[in-house]
Specification:
The protein is an alpha/beta fold. Helix content is about 35%, strand content about 20%.
């Protein structure tokens, strides 16, 4: 299969691309290298790999990238609530306008599959703190980031044509990747406890689901390999129901790695995002199970920090 991965040099993409190549696919990456391209050096010499420098907002670059492509994995985005809040105009251009254009150009180019990286943030805030949301639950986006993701999901599901379209709502991602990030909750908390010996936690009682970056990549590979009638027009939450945690619970898992660190909890009664997610559908329909838990992720990030594999943890390259 010839696969185009937009944003392939990013956190998820740099983990996904080697997996796709390992399965015998030919992979073309379209990326503007906003955060650099060092994450792709490990696959640069692979004969099945091709890189195209370009911005997903550039229509000519997109059309060129789509030539000869069977499937698109659309990861390119201004990722996360803080990044979108800082640059709302750019976020709308990339996450909304460019994504809609890519969807239409993919159909015109004869692409057979389109996998979209969405988010569980679309659920916003649970009305019942004891309940779980699933793919049939009401979407309540409370940030620009989630609003753009919801809009693209709706456009995909309302779009006609033969192209197989699958939105994937990922849990909050963590873990070590070739393009490392330390602005994600599990990674950031572990880093701060080990290096600063001090962590401030806001809203420790609120819930989120979590998933390792390698399991995100595995789920994308699985969807691409699944029969079209199993994934066409289907939305899947991607994660594991047992991997929903409150921030307080995350800290409890991390304490053994930095027992002398000080943790300060700042309780908030209101938080725009508070949700527990059910991931039964992807397990029952596609047989997907996570291979790594939050405990595993904490351990590997702690190992990374303690062994000095990265020297400058505060470098902008490690944050969106």
């Amino acid at each position: 299969m010839n696969i185009l991965v937009t944003g392939g040099a990013g956190y998820v993409g740099s983990t996904l691309v080697p997996m796709l190549l390992g399965e015998g696919n030919r992979v073309r990456v379209l990326d503007s290298l906003l955060h650099g391209g060092g994450s792709l050096l490990g696959v640069w010499a692979n004969p099945g790999f091709e890189f195209q420098l370009g911005d997903v907002r550039d229509r000519d670059a997109v059309r060129k990238a789509l030539l000869g492509i069977d499937a698109v994995v659309h990861l390119a985005a201004i990722v996360g609530d803080p990044a979108c809040a800082r640059q709302p105009e750019l976020a709308r251009e990339v996450n909304l306008d460019a994504s809609l254009t890519l969807l239409e150009d993919s159909k015109r180019a004869g692409v057979s599959r389109f996998v979209f990286a969405s988010t569980c943030s679309n659920y916003g805030k649970m009305s019942d703190p004891e309940s779980y949301v699933d793919e049939t639950s009401e979407l309540r986006p409370v940030s620009l980031y989630a609003e753009t993701k919801v809009a693209i999901e709706q456009a995909m599901l309302e779009s006609n044509g033969a192209m197989c379209k699958t939105p994937l709502r990922f849990a909050t991602v963590f873990g070590v990747s070739p393009r490392m990030r330390f602005d994600l909750t599990v990674n950031e908390f572990t880093l701060d406890l080990l290096t600063k010996k001090h962590l401030v936690v806001f809203g420790e009682q609120f819930w989120r689901p979590y998933i390792h970056v390698r399991d995100v990549a595995r789920a994308i590979c699985l969807v691409l390999a699944s029969p079209e009638n199993a994934v066409q027009g289907e939305v899947f939450n991607v994660g594991d129901t047992t991997e929903n945690y409150q921030k307080l619970q995350l800290v409890d898992l991390m304490r053994p790695y930095a027992p002398d660190a000080k943790v300060e909890f700042v309780r908030r009664e209101e938080d725009p995002r508070d949700y527990r997610v059910c991931f039964t559908k992807i397990n029952h329909r596609l047989g997907f199970d996570v291979s790594l838990t939050v405990r595993n992720g904490i351990e590997e990030v702690a190992w990374l920090v303690k062994h000095g594999v990265i020297s400058d943890f505060d470098a902008p390259a490690y944050r969106n």
